Amino acid sequence: MEETTPLLSPLRETGELARARGDGTGSVPGSAVRVPGTPGSSHEREPLLDRGSSSPREFHRNEFVDDPEFCEIIRKAERAIEEGIFPERISQGSSGSYFVKDVHGKNIGVYKPKSEEPYGQLNPKWTKWLQKLCCPCCFGRDCLLLNQGYLSEAAASLVDQRLQLNIVPKTRVVYLASETFNYSAIDRVKVKGKRLAMEKVPKVGQRFHRIGLPPKVGSLQVFVEGYKDADYWLRRFEAEPLPESTNQQLQLQFERLVVLDYIIRNTDRGNDNWLIKYDWPADKGGSKDIEWVMVKEPIIKLAAIDNGLAFPIKHPDSWRAYPFYWAWLAQAKVPFSAETRDLVLPRLTDPTFIRHLEDDLYQLFKKDPGFDRGQFHKQLAVMRGQILNLTQALREDRSPLQLVQMPPVVMETKRVPQRDDSQSYTHSLTHTHAHTHTDDSVSYTHSTQSRKPFFSWW
Ligand SMILES: Nc1ncnc2c1ncn2[C@@H]1O[C@H](COP(=O)(O)OP(=O)(O)O)[C@@H](O)[C@H]1O
Ligand SMILES: [Mg+2]
Predict the structure, then answer these.
(1) According to the model, what pLDDT value does residue 102 have?
(2) pTM for the full predicted model
(3) Of 71, 253, 340, 422, which sits with the fewest C-beta atoms within 10 Å of its C-beta?
(4) Probe target for ligand 1 pocket from 89, 98, 106, 110, with the most ligand atoms within 8 Å of CB
């Protein structure tokens, strides 16, 4: 029950929830209600995997009934692992990331287990471990929740899908076990014991038949083929400018990247964390009868990968600003196009859309054993603030560069009861910001961050 009452304060958990969810028409707008100081329930810190399930293994089945395409990929990955084609660690990066393969050894996904994230206890890259040990105060990004990168990856994909940006390769939370993953010595010893038992006492061994290396929870992102680091292509395009129409395509894709990154407040968007595919379709018709050559447009496509360091609980405010590196590109100086505005503005200004997005994010984030409702509300407050700035920038035909120069805003919500029973609530604005909106069940409190990052470019 508790898990189905995600964002509501204890004040609203009964009838209003039913109305809010009932027909989806949104009679209770703004289902996100921030109740300052409300501690998370004790359940929230319990591992969800163990809660209320007679069969914990069920949680490890990767079922995506709503998404047959993704289902197909995970089945291929599972089949490959069963046949001994294991995921292969990606050498670069600060954490354990793996190329997941099909039975033919072809890359089909990128898997990032939670326990091998930069600050996870089984991160195979020892430098992060050393950093944690030697310099705990400089450890991690204080605006981010530690070890929830896999959720951030999946949540970025969710935002991308809901806004129909289509630039994030589909990413979802899955469970995988593989010999090539980094396991604790205890887990390895257990498996060794099992193998010995199988060999020596087959009957006993059978009892352990299903006990192998424990599946790890992590994010699986679909592998996209034919893409290269944006850095590579951007340099090429400087030397060999693109045809105008292709350049326009790139600009539109770039704007979608900006929309995504800004909303999720990605803190790790270097130009190595987005990829570009550039294809000149060769005319392979080759028929001797045809004397003319069909001129086809080159295709340019962008993929936003590595979204694990997003959804902060506050705006970066000290020491490091985590800038969006795309802000230095020439594309960032061009005002947002009408196409991008028409794609996202109607959704971002629709309270029902935002409410559903927040609910979907809740369903995703609550899966983490360390889920904390208070922290989640902070993440939402930052995201709403970003959306508020973005909608303003889109309305006023600003450029991505102008967008990142806007003062960061957090937007908390809280229910403010009225004296009468009219279901209308006051709304408070704690800082000057041009944009406010009323809602009949919640009060939005915007606050503009005044503390500038210690190292800031703007
Ligand atoms: N979805 C993907 N499709 C194809 N290649 C990918 C994908 N995701 C990552 N890669 C490749 O793997 C490299 C490392 O992935 P990344 O997500 O950046 O991991 P890390 O967190 O280790 O930086 C990338 O630079 C890119 O070359
Ligand atoms: Mg990376």
Answers:
(1) 98
(2) 0.78
(3) 422
(4) 110
Q: Which of 358, 373, 372 is nearest to 444 (CA)?
A: 358
Mapping DSSP to helix (H, G, I), strand (E, B) and coil, where does residue 274 land? strand
C-beta separation of 119 from 146 below 8 A = yes
Dihedral, CA of residue 23, residue 27, residue 33 and residue 38, to nearest 10: -70
Q: Are 258 and 332 in contact (CB under 8 A)?
A: yes
Sole residue written with tokens 């005044």: 450
According to DSSP, residue 194 is labeled H
Q: Residue holding tokens 């929230």?
A: 44
Q: Tell me the DSSP string of 10-51.
A: GGGTTHHHHHHHHSSS-SS-------TT-PPPGGGGS-GGGT
Q: What type of residue is 26?
A: G
Can you tell me which atom of ligand 1 is nearest the CA of 228? 27
Q: Which ligand is nearest to the CA of 128?
A: 1
- 267 close to 309: Cβ distance less than 8 angstroms: yes
Asked whether 224 lines ligand 1 (CB < 6 A), one says yes
Find the farthest-apart pair of alpha carbons in the chain and give their distance in angstroms, rounded. Answer: 83
**pLDDT confidence of residue 124:** 66
Ramachandran angles phi, psi of 427, nearest 5° = -140, 140
